[in-house]
Design goal:
CATH class of the largest domain: Alpha Beta
Shape: rod-shaped
CATH superfamily of the largest domain: P-loop containing nucleotide triphosphate hydrolases
Number of strands: 12
CATH architecture of the largest domain: 3-Layer(aba) Sandwich
Radius of gyration: 41 Å
CATH topology of the largest domain: Rossmann fold
Number of helices: 19
Helix content: 40-55%
Length: 482
Amino acid sequence: MTLQDYIDALRRQWIVIVALTVLGVGAAFGYARTLPPEYSSTAAVMVIAQRGDSTNELVQGSSYVQSLVQTYAVLASSPLVLSPVIEELDLDETATQLAKRVSVVNTLNTVVIEISVTDTDKERAQETAAAITDSLISAVSDVSPSDAEGQPAVRLETIAPARMPQAPIGPNTRLLTIIGAAIGFGLSVAYALFRRVLGTRMTERSDIAAVTDAPVLGEIVAWRRNYTILSTMLRSRDSRSAESFRALAANLKYVAVDRDLRVVMVTSSAPHEGKSSVSIGLAAALAESGHSVVIIDADLRRSSVANALQLEGAVGVTSILVGDVTLEETVQHSESMNIDVVAGGATAPNPGQLITSHRLRDLVAEARDRYEYVIIDSAPALVVSDALWLADLADGVLVVARSGKTRRKQISAVLSTLKSTHKDVFGIVLNAVKRNESSPYYQPDVPTRRWPRSSARKSVTATSGAAKSGATESRVEDAPDA
């Protein structure tokens, strides 16, 4: 992953980052408000050597005292000093617990020791600091070596008695709030990055590039859930979604520069990934540039193209394969999209056998002769084997993956499955990509509107035995929105 990938991952999870940061601030602030106030009282003592009779003795005494200051600082928080204080003040704690509230500081290059005590009661803080000072003076007198006259060689002198604190020193609400914000921000960033690194769903081109060398021919920008492919391609011609279909059609022409790529099979790994919408959008973009295009809905189990284009779906591919009608009699023309459509037809009890019949091969061959581009909408390749049979009739295969839904292992599996057909998967389309940024080059999508049903180029009901038998319209395989 590149630095830009990490930045994009953080940008996509900005709501989580903001929410957890605010939650951390609130939790830390609330915690700080529950803590009792803390007071601190400080006393200071000086380590003094007994006066010497000569200058040499004074210098030696000063050096001796300097070497003992750190030792006496440690002694101030030891049980030798604190235990008498606990007995004197009748404190309900051990010497170890009291030592956690005692802070002893020796300023650099001085013989002064500062003793600070924190407590939730300011009077008790003063009393404890004073008692520790007195106990330390007594302990130093006991442990200090004696001179020739039996006097301690070192003594402590109080230079600043413990005072009553006037204002609390804690809790530090600001510091706790900052810490809470930092923890919340850190957790949210870790969540966003781990989700990006460990996530198994496809969200952008780099995810596809990590599992296959097949090029990404297009990223179809998602439109709102209540919009349709019709409104996107017609009333929102300048929207990002419509333009992404045009880009896909242009890339298809670039791929077909050195190959015959007129019959394209569109499939996906699983249902509801938008393969039918991509088929329609691609056909409409090709027709918009002046090409004759036909869509053959070969998903005989859950056909959806006719329903998406508001055409008759009871007569179509299945009717041709059983010999009831011809291609010319079945083709319907969508005036709004300027494309021809062969619907899936009535649901057959044996779609697998129909897909493998020679009549389907003849149907595709006839469509190739009549049109510049033939788009075959196939069933998902990992669900049924229909796509494996249809791939042999096409010049190439286009695989659709849905952003945020299709997993990496699904892409790997569908490519591996199609590899057995020895047909080239010339590209992958990443569908339903979210693009929230605005641009003066694009117009927003417009609300959906009911479009009148297009009239069939040929009558598709008079000669259809399936229609005569009261076959129902085909079901919708995937939503017409991207």
